[in-house]
Structure formats: structure tokens, C-alpha cells
UniProtKB/TrEMBL annotation:
PANTHER family: GNT FAMILY GLUCONATE TRANSPORTER, LOW-AFFINITY GLUCONATE TRANSPORTER. This is Gluconate transporter. Pfam families: GntP_permease. It comes from Chromobacterium haemolyticum. Keywords: Membrane, Transmembrane, Transmembrane helix. Signal peptide: none annotated. InterPro entries: Glcn_transporter (IPR003474). The chain crosses the membrane at residues 26-47, 59-80, 100-133, 140-159, 175-197, 226-250, 262-283, 295-316, 328-351, 358-377, 383-401, 422-444.
Length: 445
């Protein structure tokens, strides 16, 4: 089959996905599965191989992500219910002062969202915005945009977030470099898209205060200290860094090397952090076993749909790879002279705009560019830089087909036009800034 036909198959598949989700209102999981089958048939893949490829894509994606999602969801929920996240946000506000509260909220979103899903982080932290707005009498837009920017930057670029973890795993990137380049992308991106853009756009868009505020379960006198709360949030990051240290400092093949690799694996890091949160925080602060169990169960309930849609995205990615659609499109871009870092950003942005999900955009882009990347002999650091480029492209130009678009509107009371002016522009600034950092890192490594 010709390259042009394969490329048209890829474009048609994404267009069909958009039609099924937005017009036919079909659930994203079912739509992704149907489009995956259609892409396989249209690309000339043998019918007997389509089902095996779909199974391979689902297993390859969820085999890693399911553990991270489940443990991360419980970890983040316990941190909220015990007041650990509230302590971090409160200390930041006291340090920054009310006049710079929008900077404090951006930093709070960036730090507190590390162990959380984007949606979960917003649900747990949005109350801080309203509390500060009531205290200062400020415009909700000026405070909400920085918080959303901080959470979005953390979710897109920083380990141990599920999407960056998934990207690093699929791209076989170096986790240590992923942390370094992710931080270099997330911090300036958050500042530009959050406090600075939020201050500007709040002059043109104004929103009233909603009434609902979520509160932690523990009373303030039972909450952990700020130092312990921050240490617990950063703990899995430190453990993940052990893997990178081991690869550079320990002798390959030695017992120390293998132990550091094991300790620094994301599974080990998040499991250890979750256990410390349960027994070193929740239980010690007076929560009984039944209460902890209810918190963990509540955290896992919304994770199921996230896993299914993400797994379906992995199915779509695998069909694109095995059918030859991915290699054809990736090679066509590289053959046209488009730099690989720019191609990663552009492809992720295109898929994101068409179908909405940042995670699916990342997975689809990996499927499109991985065949070409594998022939280039890139280092783990360079693959980390390309992962950041993909992550940046996957969050630009959010609109009505993205759940985050509606989440912003739901919590802030913004209508669609106001959400486009605030949330959509914020996401575009953040994603573009992060991708530019990734491109610069790729050029220097």
C-alpha cells in the first residue's frame, strides 16, 4: 500500500474518531476500539492479526499504567483527606502574601498535583482558589488560571504523573532526564500561562464565586506539618531519581546497581509512598482501617474509566504501528525535512485538536514517530526531550472535545466563550512553552 494511502488512513481514522465522539456522542472507549479496527482493515492489515494487535496494544499500555494509576489515585486521595495538600497550599499562601496569591496558587498546583490525576487535583485543590478569593476579594479568573496552569504543567511534564510516566515508558526515555527536562518545561510554562497570563486575562474576563468548597476529613489540629507533607509529596520523585543515580554511579550488573534500579522503579516508588501515607500519616493521625479503606475505594472508582480510555488509546497506537500507518506518516514527515522534535510537537498537537484527549494524543504520536525514531540511535536523554515535545503538543488548543475544557467551566462558572479565552489560551501557552524547552534540550543533548 502506498505511503499516501497509509497517511490518508491515519488522517481518516482520527477524523472518524472525532465524528464518533463529538457528533454521534459515542463513548471514547468504544469509539477508539471501532476506529482501531477500521484503521487495521483500511491499511490492509490481515484480519486475523487485528485482534492480536489490539490485545497487544491494551496489554502494553495498561501493564505499566494500571499500577501507577491505582497507587497514585490512593496516594493523592489520602494526602488530601489528611490535610497534607492543604498544609502545602496554606504555607505557600502565607509565604507569598495575598497580593501574590496567584503565584502561590500556581506553585501549589504544580507541587500538589505531582501525585494526582489532573481531574482529581482540580477537584481537591479548587477550594483553595475560592477561599483565597473570599479573603482577598479578587477575581476568580486571576486565581483559578494559575492553579489550573500549575496542575496542567505537572500533569503534562512532571514525573510521577501518569501521562509523563506513560510517555517515558513508551519512548524508553531516561527517567532522570525526564524529571530534569520536565522541570525545565513546567516551571516557565506555569509562570507564563498561569500568574502572568491570568493577571492579563482577568482584566477582560470576570467570574463570580461559586459556593461549594471541599474540606479535608481531619481537623486542622490533626493535620501533618508542612515539612512532612512536602516530604511525602516529593518522596516518590526522590526514589525514581535513585534509578538514574544507579545507572551513572554504580557498576552495571552489580548488586548495588540492581537494587537502585529496583528502588527507583515507579512501581516501587509509588507503592512505598502509598504505604507511608496510609500507615505513617493516615493511621497515625487517628484514621481507622475502615476509614482508610473507604478513602482508597473512593480514589479507585474514577480510575477505571481513565484506564479503559487510555488502554483503548494504546490499542489505536498499536494498530497504527503494526499496520504500517505509523511508520509511513513518521517517515513522510522526516523525509520532508521536518526536524524530529518539531514533528513530535506538531503531530501531538494535531491529534489533540482533533480528538481532545492529551493521553490519547501522546499515545497516538508515539505510534506515529516511534518507528522512525528507533532507526536514529537516540540516547535516553534525547528520547526524554522528545517526550516533552510530545507532551507539550498534546495539551495545546483545548476546546469542546476535551474534558478539561468542561472541567474548568464547571468549577469556575465560566461559559464556553469565557473558557476559550481563559482555559484554552492558557493550555496553548503552556504546551508551546514546554515544547520549546524540549526542542532546545534535544538540540543540546
Amino acid at each position: 500500500m502506498s505511503i499516501a494511502t497509509l497517511v490518508l488512513t491515519a488522517l481518516g481514522s482520527v477524523a472518524l474518531l472525532l465524528l464518533l465522539v463529538m457528533k454521534a456522542r459515542l463513548h471514547a472507549f468504544i469509539a477508539l476500539m471501532l476506529v482501531s479496527i477500521g484503521a487495521g482493515v483500511a491499511s490492509g492489515m490481515p484480519v486475523e492479526k487485528i485482534a492480536d494487535t489490539m490485545q497487544k496494544g491494551m496489554a502494553g499500555t495498561l501493564g505499566f499504567l494500571a499500577v501507577v494509576v491505582a497507587l497514585g489515585a490512593m496516594f493523592g486521595k489520602i494526602l488530601h483527606e489528611t490535610g497534607a495538600l492543604d498544609q502545602i497550599a496554606g504555607r505557600l499562601l502565607s509565604r507569598f502574601g495575598e497580593r501574590r496569591a496567584h503565584y502561590a496558587l500556581g506553585v501549589a498546583g504544580l507541587v500538589c498535583a505531582l501525585p494526582l490525576f489532573f481531574d482529581v487535583a482540580i477537584v481537591l485543590l479548587i477550594g483553595v482558589v475560592f477561599a483565597v478569593a473570599r479573603r482577598t476579594g479578587g477575581n476568580v479568573v486571576k486565581l483559578a488560571v494559575p492553579l489550573f496552569a500549575g496542575v496542567a504543567a505537572s500533569a503534562a511534564f512532571l514525573l510521577p504523573g501518569p501521562t509523563p510516566m506513560l510517555l517515558a515508558s513508551q519512548m524508553q526515555a531516561d527517567f532522570g532526564w525526564m524529571i530534569v527536562i520536565g522541570l525545565a518545561a513546567a516551571i516557565p510554562g506555569m509562570l507564563l500561562a498561569g500568574p502572568l497570563f491570568g493577571s492579563f486575562i482577568s482584566r477582560h474576563v470576570s467570574l463570580a464565586l461559586p459556593d461549594d468548597i471541599s474540606e479535608p476529613t481531619l481537623k486542622r489540629d490533626r493535620m501533618p506539618s508542612f515539612a512532612f507533607s512536602l516530604t511525602l509529596v516529593l518522596f516518590p520523585l526522590v526514589m525514581v531519581a535513585c534509578k538514574t543515580l544507579g545507572s551513572h554511579l554504580a557498576t552495571p550488573g552489580s548488586a548495588v546497581f540492581h537494587w537502585l534500579q529496583f528502588i527507583g522503579h515507579p512501581f516501587s516508588a509509588i507503592l512505598a509512598a502509598c504505604l507511608i501515607a496510609i500507615y505513617g500519616l493516615a493511621v497515625r493521625r487517628g484514621m481507622d482501617a475502615e476509614q482508610v479503606m473507604r478513602i482508597c475505594n473512593a480514589a479507585l472508582q474514577p480510575a477505571g474509566i481513565i484506564l479503559l480510555v487510555t488502554g483503548a488509546g494504546g490499542v489505536f497506537k498499536q494498530v497504527l504501528v503494526d499496520s504500517g500507518v505509523g511508520p509511513a506518516l513518521g517517515n513522510a514527515l522526516i523525509g520532508a525535512g521536518l526536524p524530529i522534535a518539531v514533528a513530535c510537537f506538531a503531530l501531538a498537537a494535531a491529534v489533540r485538536i482533533i480528538q481532545g484527549s492529551a493521553t490519547v494524543a501522546c499515545l497516538t504520536t508515539v505510534g506515529l514517530v516511534l518507528p522512525a525514531i528507533e532507526t536514529m540511535g537516540l540516547s535516553g536523554a534525547q528520547l526524554a526531550a522528545l517526550s516533552i515535545c510530545i507532551a507539550g503538543g498534546s495539551i495545546v488548543l483545548s476546546h469542546v472535545n476535551d474534558s478539561g475544557f468542561w472541567l474548568f467551566g464547571k468549577f469556575t462558572g465560566a461559559n464556553e466563550a469565557q473558557t476559550l479565552k481563559t482555559w484554552s489560551l492558557m493550555e496553548t501557552i503552556l504546551g508551546t512553552t514546554g515544547a520549546l524547552v524540549g526542542m532546545a534540550a534535544f538540540a543540546m543533548l
